[in-house]
Amino acid sequence: MVDYREVPLAAFGSKSIVRIRDIDAVVHNYRIFADRVAQTDTVCGVVLKGDVHGLSMAAVAPALYEAGCSCYFVEEIAEGIELRGFLPQSDARIYAMAGLLDGEEAYFADHDVTPCLNDLDQIERWNRFCGLNGRRGAVIHLDTHMNRLGLLDGDVDKLADGFDELTGHLDVEFYMSHFADIKGDDASGCLRQLDVLNGYLAELPPRPVSFSATDATILLDNQIFDFDIVRIGVGLIGGAPSASRPVSPDAESALEIYAKLSQIKWVAAGQPVGYGGAYVTKRDTKLALAHIGYKDGYLRALSETDAKPVGAFMCVGGYRAPVIGKVSMGMTTLDVTDVPDDVLKRCCCAEVVGPNVDMKQLADLGGCYEVLVALGRPNLKCADFTLREFESGFGSMR
Q: CA neighbours within 13 Å on the CB side: how many for 361?
């Protein structure tokens, strides 16, 4: 029998989902990355946006700081303000990647958060503010033809021609950019972006550069792509470009999710399951409902239907239970035919993410890590524990 965690009813209380966060695993994964990029004399920064994919900045950020991390990236200034509350230390540098939106200048200054400036207007506004209120840091985001955040060719030319005037009151700490696609085996797109970046850097005054993120650090040649600062995101929590391309054999998943079961019943072969009858049973089938659905981030893309025969699975007592029929807003139908009766009687829940259900496999099927972020937000149906809290109260893994 494989290892699995028996979650007692007492852990759920009035909730239907239990979430277990392993902060030690986050630190462990950070050290894997830090050791790797140290080989190219590169700083290992961390991306904590989305509340660290739902794992809680309040828990993760101080632990990473104690582990030696001093470079943090968030999305908007609101996240930066929250993070600064957890990291008041002056050597903890916080960067907001969404940029300097209208009216935010004073918030960046008051909370010592550095904006990643994404267009000429943002550069001009921040430079003007700092001219009146004191010199401050800035990062300039270069769009290497991803056509999302950052300055494109013409604006880079203007920045290069007027750099001293446009940034006269700023300390430009580094340039940054972002890859559009690095999940497969074809790095040609990354190389094209690298050529664009090198063209920009040839025009601009020299500064450090941040280009690589989680996927790039794993898949691409560090000597070519890492530059000076890498930005590690979902790799911190055990995610990776795909299930077949993990961060490291030693990387650990930092999250487990369990959902209560109900409504165990037999249906005959040939019966429709769920909305639209999108799945028809191929045999006499024992069904169970797991009380997690798309409002909790468990996406419909994870469903097995007749039109899409490859879906996700959960585990009950270590046994696989395929997801069949369309995922509903608050529940998901499982095929538990192959789960022994005594296991179903003993186990009150299904493992949604955990030792037998790799979060990377869910990301491969669903496209991203939504379920982690969704359950990290305030959710009335989710009981939340750190691993230490859970094991001190309810016992260790079976």
A: 12
